[in-house]
């Protein structure tokens, strides 16, 4: 591997039979001249490399021996470290002039002897794994002895030239394997380092565009190998200037895949990053997995199939495809050299609507949703596969579908946590449960405000890629009042949430409660007057075992307004709402016959507008009420069971009414969804009541997750929070206005009394 110009030159004490640096350089120049004579590029294109910033500092303490060793383990092409002198002229690996921030003890490195510095412990940062606690400040010689034969230690000189004699002594004595490079913001230091070690790559560091331009000619004059620049100052002009001067270009410090890719496109050959393995996998996922290039695609007709129709089609790969029909199945055998997540890609075609088929994966059967498409289209989703032979197949679920081919590709993984925020009230403590999309990675620790806390992991039954994570209320009672950051450390990543810890809930003018009613709809509103409204009541068993007990626990016996969006049993209890009317004092019943589309009314300070009603459809779902609910600038859009066609009508008729902070998912995201409508809504929060079938519905997985949520999040500063109740449980909104609202969730709702609810009820009585 060649990194930079001749980064892997021979260290002192290495094999004398290896080519000398100058001989190697001469060969490169000769080959370059030959290429130029043939009209080709003067130099071969350099590979893009990843330099671990202060070691693998995202996971281990920066500039520690552990962080450097971890960088090698994670496959970083190079690891960077900072060096300076102690008062007794030891070459110490440390970044700051003062040790206070990183160790908690105040010592100026240059004024402190090594005997004192060696006993200082580097504090863990938030993302560091607990197993690296206790790391001490190292010397450069400790790091030089760890360099693998095919890797590079990049040494940043943090002082001026006074360190160079001592640095040379360390390098000459302890550099026996691998390669090194020098970088520095001090031009005299890097110039002299190059003079001392002409065969070692040396790069001038800069964070200023004007400073960089001033030093380009000087870098060439002093035979430096290149520049190492802050990524934000690099543009096409600066890149061109470096290229024309024959200078290699590196950048620092990048932890974002988009920025790293931009740097690569601008001609940068090495990016310094805190997360070398993760960033490399984001840019070059094919390097993560060993999937045979010519064998990752399997023609449908090459599978072993039963009762499937083979048809010819010039638009299909290989000129043929298979048709899934009733009681049909096709299998393929896929050989892989490691267990991991892989992206399963299926080229398919459907007609007449979305389809649901079953993916057969070894001994498991997984329902998958396919979006309607009359033309060939790609389904893509990550699945965990084993090393060795895997049997994959597709079996009919409902609806015919054509299959052209399947392919196994490197997985595209998005780790996640749901919900990203929650509330904890010390007056009524409860455990917090989060759904973690961990993709088989172990949870290495949970950090709250920099301190580890105990946790437990529970199986998430509906997806192989997820778990539930539980934080005991006893851990949370120890926290001070305020907002606390929760960091969940996985093996290769970190995901964050936050919890607001308060002594008790503040009074809220409008409270919305959406209990987990599985596939159905039920929403309780406590209006600013203290009166209660109920929208739908779920299936009969939900009404009797979940909703009515919850209403009773909260001392609710009168429902001022009962709204039934339409007459399906998962909304009206299977009896047109009669049980609710009989068991509670119901003042008003509203259904889709009550008001036409466009009707508006105010109730106890809350504004309601019907944006879809009976006349807008010819069956129950398309007739369903869709309601805009507004309070002091806050908007909740209740989608009822409307379809995409209804959403398109709403968008045409009431474009000014569509934007909302909260969207209550239409038709449980089982039926059709219009991405244009969701984008116009642009909600901060989406509430979804459904069973695990949503993971097999194209309406949710494709139309919402891919074509709506993901697209919106590319432009939002705060991503949309999507809360399926089956993942988080009962959802509670506390609302005082447009900028004054929040939400919380309760996984266990059987005995739940919403914190503060009964006390607030007493407020209305008085």
Low-confidence stretches at least 5 residues in length (pLDDT < 50)?
1-44, 286-294
Helical amount: 10-25%
The share of residues in extended strands comes to 25-35%
Number of helical stretches of at least 4 residues: 21
Q: How many strand units?
A: 43
User: How far apart are the first and last residues' alpha carbons, in Å?
Assistant: 78 Å
Q: Which overall shape is indicated by the principal axes computed on the Cα atoms?
A: globular
How does the major sheet shape up?
8 strands, parallel, barrel
Q: In what order do the strands lie side by side in the largest sheet? A: 1-2-4-5-6-7-8-9
Which radius of gyration do the C-alpha atoms yield? 31 Å
Class based on secondary structure composition and strand pairing: alpha/beta
Quick check: average pLDDT? 89
What does this structure look like?
The strands form 7 sheets. This protein has an 8-stranded parallel barrel with strand order 1-2-4-5-6-7-8-9, surrounded by 6 helices. With 766 residues, it is of the alpha/beta class. The chain is globular. Mean pLDDT is 89; it is low at 1-44 and 286-294. 23% of the residues lie in helices and 33% in strands. The chain is built from 21 helices and 43 strands. The termini are far apart. α18 packs across α19.
Features:
single chain, 766 residues, alpha/beta, 21 helices, globular
Brief summary:
With 766 residues, this protein is of the alpha/beta class. Helices cover 23% and strands 33% of the residues.
């Amino acid at each position: 591997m060649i990194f930079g110009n001749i980064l892997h030159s021979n260290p002192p004490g290495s094999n004398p039979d290896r080519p000398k640096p100058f001989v190697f350089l001469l060969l490169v120049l000769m080959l370059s001249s030959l290429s130029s004579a043939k009209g080709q590029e003067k130099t071969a294109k350099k590979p893009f490399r990843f330099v671990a910033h202060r070691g693998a500092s995202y996971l281990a303490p920066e500039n520690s021996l552990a962080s450097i060793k971890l960088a090698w383990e994670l496959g970083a092409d190079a690891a960077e470290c900072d060096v300076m002198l102690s008062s007794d002229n030891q070459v110490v690996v440390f970044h700051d002039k003062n040790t206070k921030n990183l160790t908690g003890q105040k010592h100026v490195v240059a004024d402190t002897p090594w005997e004192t510095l060696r006993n200082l412990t580097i504090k863990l940062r938030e993302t560091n794994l607990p197993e690296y606690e206790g790391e001490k400040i190292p010397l450069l010689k400790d790091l030089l002895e760890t360099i693998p034969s095919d890797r590079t230690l990049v040494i940043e000189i943090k002082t001026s030239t006074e360190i160079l004699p001592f640095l040379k002594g360390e390098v000459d004595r302890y550099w026996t394997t691998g390669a090194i490079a020098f970088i520095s913001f001090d031009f005299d230091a890097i110039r002299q380092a190059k003079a001392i070690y002409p065969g070692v790559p040396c790069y001038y560091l800069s964070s200023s565009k004007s400073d960089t331009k001033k030093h380009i000619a000087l870098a060439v004059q002093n035979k430096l190998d290149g520049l190492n620049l802050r990524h934000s100052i690099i543009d096409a002009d600066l890149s061109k200037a470096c290229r024309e001067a024959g200078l290699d270009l590196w950048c620092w410090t990048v932890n974002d895949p988009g920025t790293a890719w931009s740097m690569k496109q601008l001609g940068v050959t090495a990016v310094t990053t805190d997360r070398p393995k993760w960033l490399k996998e984001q840019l070059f996922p094919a390097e993560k997995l060993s999937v045979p290039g010519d064998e990752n695609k399997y023609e449908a007709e090459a599978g072993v199939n039963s009762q499937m129709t083979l048809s010819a089609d010039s638009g299909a790969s290989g000129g043929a495809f298979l048709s899934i029909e009733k009681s049909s199945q096709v299998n393929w055998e896929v050989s892989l050299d490691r267990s991991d997540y892989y992206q399963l890609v299926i080229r398919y075609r459907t007609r007449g609507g979305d389809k649901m088929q079953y993916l057969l994966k070894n001994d498991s059967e997984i329902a998958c949703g396919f979006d309607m498409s009359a033309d060939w289209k790609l389904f893509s989703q990550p699945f965990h596969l084993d090393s060795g032979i895997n049997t994959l197949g597709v079996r009919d679920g409902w609806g015919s579908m054509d299959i052209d081919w399947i392919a196994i590709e490197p997985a595209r993984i998005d780790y996640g946590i749901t919900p990203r925020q929650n509330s904890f009230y010390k007056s009524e403590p409860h455990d917090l449960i989060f759904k973690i999309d961990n993709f088989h990675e172990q949870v290495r620790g949970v950090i709250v405000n920099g301190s580890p806390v105990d946790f437990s992991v529970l199986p998430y039954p509906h997806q192989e890629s997820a778990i539930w994570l539980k934080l005991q209320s006893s851990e949370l009672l120890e926290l001070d009042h305020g907002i606390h950051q929760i960091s969940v450390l996985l093996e290769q990543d970190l995901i964050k949430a936050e919890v607001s810890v308060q002594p008790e809930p503040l009074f809220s003018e409008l409270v919305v409660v959406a209990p987990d009613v599985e596939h159905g709809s039920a929403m309780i509103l406590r209006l600013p007057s203290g009166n209660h409204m109920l929208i739908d009541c779920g299936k009969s068993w939900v009404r009797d075992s979940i909703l009515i007990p919850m209403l009773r626990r909260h001392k609710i016996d009168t429902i001022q307004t009962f709204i039934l969006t339409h007459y399906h049993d998962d909304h009206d209890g299977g009896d047109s709402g009669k049980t609710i009317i009989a068991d509670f004092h119901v003042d008003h019943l509203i259904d889709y016959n009550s008001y036409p589309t466009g009707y508006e009314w105010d109730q106890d300070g809350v504004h309601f507008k019907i944006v879809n009603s009976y006349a807008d459809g010819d069956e129950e779902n398309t007739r369903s009420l869709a309601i805009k609910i507004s309070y002091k600038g806050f908007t909740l859009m209740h989608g009822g069971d409307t379809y995409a066609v209804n959403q398109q009508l709403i968008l045409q008729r009431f474009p000014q009414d569509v934007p909302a902070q909260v969207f209550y998912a239409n038709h449980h995201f089982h039926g059709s969804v219009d991405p244009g409508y969701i984008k116009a809504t642009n909600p901060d929060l989406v509430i979804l009541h459904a069973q695990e079938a949503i993971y097999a519905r194209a309406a949710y997985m494709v139309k919402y997750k891919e074509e709506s949520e993901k697209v919106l999040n590319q432009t939002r500063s705060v991503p949309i929070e999507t809360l399926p109740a089956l993942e988080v449980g009962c959802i509670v909104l506390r609302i005082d206005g447009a900028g004054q609202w929040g939400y919380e969730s309760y996984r266990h709702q059987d005995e739940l009394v919403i914190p503060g609810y009964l006390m607030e009820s007493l407020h209305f009585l008085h």
